Recover the amino acids of this structure.
């Protein structure tokens, strides 16, 4: 019985199937149909596929050698909807990105060096390049280590991720604050197109549980309204119904000594944590004076990470000020972990 080579991997606080591009159809429509059958969509339980019945566990990474001289491999991210026959390329994913580097080494696309191997990854969805440092003792990937990240039990080997500044405009409208759908918002893209809104402006405290926000019909309606209003302003291709960006992030003052507290809609479910690139966009918003984060954010001392609080803990990252332009930011850096869960062949639904 034939199958398709696939690695089921956790990357950061997400999980999904990682494939070589050569093992999937090149035609997008055929590829997407196959991935829906592999992941078990559309079905709220994804009972007949790899998906875990949540957007965070219904993700796919497609990896190939890169023709870009600045990158080793290309990484195309695909978000497979759980309950709809939709596969979206409208965003990338910084958590699955963490799995791409060890996968590239495991598949022989990048030779392992003794001790530590840096893999430069071009994120096809955005054009941004990231450098990921993977632990490779004995010239082999190890997933064992002492790094901890909120939202994932146990420890694993650290993967240091350095993100080049986003290729496009940090502020797509050119404004620090826009008024959309009746609220003030900062439209920002430091790797993830995001709309930052004060939780208080929606009558929320900012500490609500994800399930509580998802069950609040008025909150869901307002989030959809804000997202629809922001969509054309950010120049995103497609329609709000067929894309997963922009993300709406509710901000409030940190409650546990961090920089900001967040609740992130992705775009309809509420993230149990926060995505790496979403956190990078939030941190960039906190770095810029005059955004909706101004007055809520507590910036760290020089040399200390920015701590973005989320429902299950926090994400620490560095977002450097731009050396020449106060309206921009420099490199973003974060530590993630990843793990190979299964490596073999997956058999799609007929």
């Amino acid at each position: 019985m034939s199958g398709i080579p696939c690695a089921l991997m956790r990357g950061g606080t997400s999980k999904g199937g990682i494939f070589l591009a050569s093992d999937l159809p090149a035609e997008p429509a055929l590829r997407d149909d196959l991935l829906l059958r592999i992941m078990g969509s559309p079905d709220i339980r994804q009972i007949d596929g790899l998906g875990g019945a949540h957007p965070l566990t219904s993700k796919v990474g497609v990896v190939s050698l890169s023709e870009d001289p600045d990158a080793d491999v290309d990484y195309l991210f695909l978000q497979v909807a759980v309950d709809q026959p939709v596969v979206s390329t409208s965003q990338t994913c910084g958590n699955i990105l963490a799995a791409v580097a060890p996968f590239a080494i495991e598949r022989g696309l990048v030779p392992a060096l003794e001790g530590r191997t840096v893999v430069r990854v071009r994120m096809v969805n955005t054009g941004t390049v990231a450098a990921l440092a993977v632990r490779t003792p004995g010239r082999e990937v190890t997933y064992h280590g002492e790094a901890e990240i909120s939202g994932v039990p146990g420890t694993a080997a650290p993967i240091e991720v350095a993100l080049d500044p986003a290729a496009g405009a940090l502020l797509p409208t050119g404004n620090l604050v826009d008024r959309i759908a009746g609220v003030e918002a900062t439209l920002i893209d430091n790797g993830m197109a995001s709309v930052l809104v004060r939780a208080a402006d929606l009558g929320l405290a900012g500490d609500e549980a994800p399930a509580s926000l998802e069950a609040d019909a008025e909150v869901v309606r307002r989030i959809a309204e804000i997202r629809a209003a922001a969509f054309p302003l950010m120049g995103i291709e497609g329609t709000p119904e067929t894309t997963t960006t922009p993300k709406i992030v509710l901000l409030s003052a940190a409650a546990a000594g961090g920089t900001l507290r967040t609740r992130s809609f992705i775009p309809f479910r509420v993230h149990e944590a926060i995505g790496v690139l979403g956190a990078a966009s939030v941190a960039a918003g906190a770095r810029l004076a005059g955004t909706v984060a101004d007055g809520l954010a507590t910036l760290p001392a020089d040399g200390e990470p920015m701590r973005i609080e989320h429902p299950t803990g926090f994400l620490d990252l560095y977002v450097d000020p731009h050396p020449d332009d106060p309206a921009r930011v420099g490199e973003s850096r974060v530590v993630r972990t990843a793990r190979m869960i299964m490596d073999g062949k997956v058999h799609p639904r007929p």
The chain has two domains: 4-164+338-346, 178-327.
